[in-house]
Amino acid sequence: MNLFKINPIIPLAINLADRRRRFILFCGAGVSKDAGIPSSQDIRFDTLGKIYQQEQKKGKFSKKEVEEWCLQNKTLKSMTYSDILDLAYPGMEQKRLYLNSFFEGKQPGETHKAIAKMISTGLIRFIITTNFDNFIEKALDSEGLGDKYSVISTNDQAKNSDTWDKIEVCRIYKIHGDKDQGIIRNSPKELEKLDKYIEKDFQELINRHGVIVLGYAGEDEGAMRCFKKREYHRYSIYWQYCENVNAKVKNMILNQDGVLIQRHKASEFLNELLERIEIIYRTSETETTETIKKGYEQILIRGNPLEIKARIEEERSHYVEKIRSAYESVGQNPDGKHIWDVHIELIEKASRNIILGDQLLRFETSRDWEEFIKIFEEIHSIDKDQNGYGRNELINYLFFSLFLVVGSRALKYERFAEIKRLFSIRKLYRDRMDYILDWNIQASYLKQKNQNEPQRFYVPQMHYLLGLADANKFPIDKDELRKLILEFDLLCFIYTTKNLKVSRWRPGCVYYFKHESPQFLQKIKIDDEYCEKIAGHLFNETKDVLRTSLTKVNDMYESFSSQMEGWPENPFKAILTD
Asked: How far apart are CA 311 and CA 294, in angstroms?
């Protein structure tokens, strides 16, 4: 029977894309060889060569001569790799300088950079390597993760460090030692068994995770013993190789239902894997709010400012491009139904940016908030004519909707300094700089849509926005979102009433409060800490001044509401009544 076969990297990409970090990396010498870095065998030969040259007083010699000499000398033959290094370089500093001489002028290779990318994007958190160089660390440093990873290379470190399950971002296990400590395991005797506590962590990690093996020949008895004992029923093992695979590896892979994948370079394998993950990331229809949120959480926990900024720019650019495409597709004179349908599509496509903004607020990253809110100017600037007709209606109402949704999240987390920064955004309009609360939000097609409803609504913009919230079009609990949108809308009115530089915001929320004051107004009245926070961070005044000013805001509202249709509620009345 012919079975349909797929590229074995595809299922690995699918399993990594959810960022649950269920796989670890195991890196052999091939990973560093890509960057032109010598193997431990190369260094061992160089050290033995120096000793041989002096013992035999020879100027030139071959590798074969050195190997035969070593085999004939029983004492030398039985010595460990570290012992051989000690013969030529007995001091720790001498040994360190000698080992470092092999790496001078070398930089992380493509494989190291790809590994660092997998860590920075939250795909994996554990790297186990037989290599003793520090190029993985250098690549992580270049990704801005310098203080986010730890390195275990000795038994004492493994014994005395936090258990592996406590690791948030990354831990590197150097099971054959670290050149910076002058301790390297390389001889067959040294590789027969791993240090007790390093082996314990190694075995637990490969039992509980899938394994991606890169550039490793499988000749080390101690490491291979752990692989053979691995509880493979949990997750698969994917073994990348260049040309040939030894019998031990083949049997182990066969017994564990693993997968052998031939790629000439480890970097080739990883770059293809990352490319396929990116395709999943950009096209998956099954991505849930929780998986998106989890991905952003991992980025913010890692705290790499370059990565965070790049992700914000990437999400913003990707979404704004979708809006531009939709803007062009609707044509110059679209009908209202078509604009509404496109609006819903764009709201649904905004989920990633809404979740990202929510996570930035939750993690209190003010610097990154500055970068995030640039999205509003980019969206509104698509409307070059600055009017409320035709396809520009699409832009105006989309901006209005996202402005209230994102602002409501800042209100939820009591991020009043971030709200102030949001209110402070300005962009050039003709011959003046307009604040964001003055930007055009007119959308005539909503009035037409409202006229066709069995029951007409006083503020169609607010009504239809709340309708989308009730229909779960946003990645936020609908009841919480509805309440906070209304409260943030009222906060916009208060801010513009107190700030004479900005035209007064028309609060559509007042038709929906149902005889009660918003929660944030109640907290201003009774919660001194909350009142002090909003007064200082948003209005640059004391809590007493803010509370007193609400009487004036109420008077302005009474005057303003007299010009509004229907009988809107007065949300200030209850809190101003003792």
From this structure: 14
